[in-house]
Amino acid sequence: MPIGAATRACCCPSQPAARVVLPPSGDRDAQEIFLCAHHLRASAARLRQLGAPIYDERGLPVTAPEKIFVAVRPRGNADHDAQKEAACAPTTS
Ligand SMILES: [Zn+2]
What we know:
Elements: E1 18-22, E2 31-35, H1 37-50, E3 54-56, H2 78-86
C-alpha cells in the first residue's frame, strides 16, 4: 500500500519515506509505523534485528533501509528536501 501524501511520519514532523511493520512483542500486537528517511536510516540496524518488514512509499519492499534518503517527489527540489531532512534530527539524547 503506497504512503498517502497526507500521512505524517510517526517519528517526527517530516514526510514519511517508509512504512515499517514492527513484529508482535510480549503483549503488544504487530504495529505499523511510518518513518522519515532520517529516522529509517538511524533505525536500520535495529529494524533488521527485529526482522521488521519495511516498505517504501510505493509499497515496495526495502532491503537496504540504511540507503534510503529523502523520497524524490515531483514537486520537490533537492534543496528543500535537504532542509526538511536537516530539521528531522532527533531531539532526544
Ligand atoms: Zn523522523
